[in-house]
Design goal:
The complex is a heterodimer of chains A (504) and B (353).
Chain A: E1 3-14, E2 17-28, E3 32-36, H1 43-50, E4 58-63, E5 66-67, H2 73-79, E6 81-84, H3 96-103, H4 114-128, H5 143-156, E7 161-165, H6 173-188, E8 192-197, H7 200-206, E9 209-214, E10 217-223, H8 229-237, E11 254-263, E12 273-281, E13 284-289, H9 296-303, E14 311-316, E15 319-320, H10 326-331, E16 334-337, H11 341-345, H12 352-356, H13 375-388, H14 405-417, E17 423-427, H15 435-450, E18 454-458, H16 462-468, E19 471-476, E20 479-485, H17 491-498
Parallel strand pairs in A: 3-8, 3-9, 6-7, 7-8, 13-18, 13-19, 16-17, 17-18
Antiparallel strand pairs in A: 1-2, 1-4, 4-5, 9-10, 11-12, 11-14, 14-15, 19-20
Helix pairs in contact in A: 3-4, 3-5, 13-14, 14-15
Chain B: E1 2-5, H1 11-35, H2 40-52, H3 55-80, H4 88-103, H5 111-140, H6 144-164, H7 199-216, H8 218-228, H9 230-235, H10 240-267, H11 278-288, H12 293-317, H13 322-343, E2 344-348, E3 351-352
Antiparallel strand pairs in B: 1-2, 2-3
Classes of the chains: A alpha/beta (504), B mainly alpha (353).
């Protein structure tokens, strides 16, 4: 086997943070190398350096024995390095064909030879089993299909090394299987593949070699013959992390109820909901499983008072709610932790202090009756949030965007918990967090449950769902299945229901 | 060349950068003066002298700064909420129209009531112009840059119609101008025999009030938050529609105030050349001050100095007054670039800034 990529002592730091510290590894033709590590371990930074998005502080990269210029994406692509990003970079309103044409046409060209491009797409699809209709519009495709388009787009540039950044992040177990078949057919023809992931089980199934990063350092590498799950897990986190104890919550009274709720899905608006009947009890974590985009977000937004349903009733504490605004629901004791914490949760440019009191501009302790803010009590208020929830920061006046994802999430959850809500709606609250932060967020939610609060827990991670929830419902295509008792469900069954194919 | 995000925030840099930008743009002006065939240092001397060299020059600079402070505040408060009000010019004329309608004999009040009354109706008129546009934007996502900009032309043509027809002063010997404001409505002079009037002080007081509102109250906090991230603000239970509506109306009212000061303080009557683009220059004023109300007072004075000084400079060394516009444009561009520098590092080859 010929060596394809050699990374030699790459280091990169951002300010005080060392993202990559003297990292070396190599990839051969026909080899699948997995880069494992927690979020913030430096995986994506390393890949961005290989792909030329970032300039390394030191070190060099060789491709097929020749040094490649660093910090030059165009050169990396021309040499044959392709990257499939975690977040898709497709134009939703264009077809598959047009999306692929965009990236591969010279800016000054007069016409695009769509026939030739379509021909090549068909050829690539056939060769690697990437079934997709070139004429389909991107917005009509599923997540799995969009990913296939991304892969075709990458392969279209005749690349020899493919970097896949968290490719399984939002796929169902079935879609993951399909993806792995595609990856296998890629290495069969001699391509090198790098997969970035933090899901150990999947990586053990697909890769030939695993390298592990922790805090920017290479902590180990292991060949297929020697794969050992527990040793790898230790390399990733450094020490054994303590998962919260699984114990059943004590169900109390019904706090929220949705009866016959419908929302139509208009063009441009999120997925609709049809005929939702749902009950949320105190002292219980109700988990919602489902592939993202099947209406979970709409569901959460209805329960938080952001969207007015077309028909049906919404009851909180047995009372029919007529005024549908976030503020009205907050006053009824609802807290909503949104899926995207940086764009919907905090205002990144504003300080930690400002973000900590953002929900409190009507709180007489924070703003007096003439509307003047009380800075002293704001500082006390936010200081308490940070202390109670272990938010680590340098100064309350630093912009919130400089905090790590875990600290942002703890600040956000802490702010809501400070309002002492009865109902907590948590959308993907642990997504993108490192192991330590995941555990503390899960613990926070379990603590609230034990205090008798009702928690709605939406996640795509089945392991987490089974770990935390007391009851589980599954959402597919705007419909809700369940509730099921968690110990009566197999992971496989949930997986099937998530794709709509195994309705019990 | 590439841009990298600065991971740390430097307060010193955010103060130094805009001043560096102003110095850079003055150097550019040097070069331009040189190309125009004027002695640069001497020209600058005339510019400073023209703006500050005598009580009359000072008064003239203050009078010119008055509407700029108000339109600057109008742009500043709206831009903080990311409501791009480009229509201060039209709102200014709406305010002036209100002054002419109510202040030329329709209503008679003692001076201490008449002046506040005219500001009230002028502010209302400015807010009224912007009201349908902000509703269209919040409900149907109609781009406010387009609507507020086009509204300027609608209002200007409407004013033109009124001054040629129903509102034309019969004593104006055929000129298209409104009737003079009654004596009780005229803003008194601060300095005898100059054009500096009470409006200048009113504008400064308004700026200070606005600064308190924006930096000390829950409402100002909401505006800031809406501007930076409307979605997170909405999720925190702050009503977007109401907040943006109030911001836009305040913005329109401030521009309307500028129409009042110009009509009742400077000219005494409405004409079609009441404002040589104060509404548009207000945007530059606000940008130059990074949208800070106190900063807007100083940036308005700075731009007024350049405009007033350029007049006397052009007379003394025979260069076109348009040079003032060029200097203002370069200054605004440099300040905007310097604001980028606060947040990003620039790397050219091995050099880092």
């Amino acid at each position: 086997m010929h060596s394809l990529l050699e990374v030699e002592s790459i280091s990169k730091s951002f300010g005080d943070l060392t993202a990559n510290n003297d990292i070396s590894f190599s990839v051969s033709e026909g080899e699948i190398v997995a880069v494992l590590g927690e979020n913030g371990a430096g995986k994506t930074t390393l890949m961005n350096i290989i792909f030329g998005h970032y300039l390394p502080d030191s070190g060099s990269i060789k491709f097929k024995g020749e040094k490649i210029p660093v910090g030059n994406t165009r050169a990396a692509i021309n040499l044959g390095i392709g990257m499939v990003h975690q977040h898709f970079t497709l134009a939703e309103n264009l077809s598959v064909l047009e999306n692929i044409a965009i990236g591969n046409q010279s800016l000054l060209g007069f016409s695009i030879d769509f026939k030739q491009i379509e021909h090549k797409i068909t050829k690539i699809s056939g060769e690697f089993g990437l079934a997709v209709d070139p004429r389909a519009i991107i917005s009509d495709l599923s997540i799995g299909e969009k990913q296939r388009v991304e892969i075709i787009k990458t392969l279209f540039g005749d690349c020899e090394l493919v970097i896949l950044d968290e490719p399984t992040a939002s796929l169902t177990p079935q879609e993951v299987d399909q993806l792995f078949l595609i990856i296998r057919s890629m290495v069969k023809v001699g391509l090198g593949v790098i997969i970035i992931s933090h899901k150990l089980d999947e990586i053990l199934r697909i890769s030939d070699r695993i390298i592990v990063l922790r805090n920017g350092k290479l902590t180990g590498s292991m060949d297929k013959a020697n794969f050992d799950k527990s040793i790898l897990a230790e390399m990733i986190v450094g020490k054994k992390t303590e998962r919260p104890e699984k114990n059943k919550g004590k169900k109390t009274e019904k706090l929220m109820e949705l009866i016959g709720l419908n929302i139509s899905s208009n063009v441009g608006s999120p997925m609709g909901l049809s005929d939702i009947n749902f009950e949320l009890f105190g002292g219980e974590i109700h988990g919602i499983a489902g592939v993202s985009g099947n209406g979970q977000r709409t569901f959460a937004e209805v329960m938080a008072g952001h969207i007015r349903p077309d028909s049906g009733d919404l009851l909180i504490n047995g009372k029919r709610i007529k005024k549908i605004t976030p503020r009205a629901f907050m006053d009824e004791g609802v807290a909503y932790i949104p899926e995207d914490r940086t764009s919907d949760g905090v205002v990144g440019e504003l300080s930690i202090l400002d973000n900590g009191v953002l929900t409190e501009t009507k709180n007489p302790k924070i703003a007096n009756r003439f509307g003047f803010l009380n800075k002293k009590s704001s500082i006390k208020f936010v200081g308490e949030i940070c202390e109670e929830n272990d938010v680590r920061f340098q100064s309350l006046s630093q912009p919130t965007r400089l905090l790590s994802g875990g600290n942002i999430q703890k600040l956000l959850i802490g702010r809501w918990l400070k309002r002492n809500p009865e109902i907590i709606i948590a959308c993907q609250p642990t997504r993108g967090l490192d192991e330590g932060a995941i555990v503390s967020v899960q613990k926070l939610l379990l603590e609230e449950r034990d205090k008798g609060k009702a928690v709605l827990f939406i996640t795509e991670d089945l392991d987490e769902l089974l770990l935390v929830s007391d009851v589980i419902s599954i959402m597919f295509d705007g419909k809700l299945m369940g509730p099921y008792n968690y110990d009566k469900l197999e992971k496989r069954e949930i997986g099937l229901m998530m794709t709509g194919s195994g309705i019990l | 060349m590439r841009l990298e995000v600065r991971e740390t925030y430097s307060p010193a840099l955010s103060i130094i950068a805009p001043f560096g930008a102003i110095i850079f743009s003055l150097l550019c002006a040097f070069v331009l003066l040189f190309i125009a065939g004027a002695p640069p240092i001497e020209s600058f001397f005339y510019l400073i002298k023209g703006a500050f060299g005598s009580p009359n020059a000072l008064a003239e600079t203050g009078a010119r700064a008055t509407p700029l402070i108000l339109t600057g505040l109008a742009a500043g408060i709206a831009f903080r909420a990311k409501f791009w009000n480009i229509g201060a010019e039209g709102q200014l004329y709406a305010g002036a129209l209100a002054a002419t309608f109510f202040g030329t004999g329709l209503i008679h009040l003692p001076q201490f009531l008449m002046i506040p009354f005219l500001f009230l109706v002028g502010g209302l008129a400015g807010a009224l112009v912007i009201l349908p546009l902000v509703i269209l934007r919040q409900l149907y996502k109609v781009d406010e840059v387009v609507t507020t900009l086009l509204m300027n032309f609608v209002i200007l043509l409407f004013v033109s119609y009124l001054l040629e027809g129903p509102m034309k002063d019969p004593m104006s010997l055929g000129w298209p101008q409104g009737s003079p404001v009654i004596d009780n409505g005229v803003l008194p002079q601060i300095l005898e025999r100059t054009r500096l009037h009470l409006g200048f002080l009113i504008a400064i007081v308004v700026a200070i009030c606005l600064w308190v509102l924006l930096s000390r109250t829950a409402f100002g906090f909401r505006i800031k938050s809406v501007g930076h991230n409307p979605s997170a603000t909405y999720h925190a239970g702050i009503p977007l529609f109401k907040t943006v509506l109030v911001v836009a109306c305040l913005s329109g009212a401030l521009a309307g105030f500028a129409g009042i000061t110009e009509t009742t303080g400077l000219k005494g009557y409405l004409t079609l050349d009441l404002s040589p683009g104060f509404g548009y220059t207000g945007i530059a004023v606000a940008m130059l001050a990074a949208l800070n109300p106190i900063g807007i007072i100083f940036s308005a004075l700075f731009l007024a100095m350049i405009y007033v000084g350029a007049d006397s400079m052009s007379r003394a060394v025979n260069v076109p007054t348009y040079l003032a516009d060029v200097v203002v444009a370069i200054t605004v561009l440099s300040v905007l670039v310097s604001l980028i520098l606060i947040n990003y590092k620039i790397q050219i080859g091995k050099l880092k800034f």
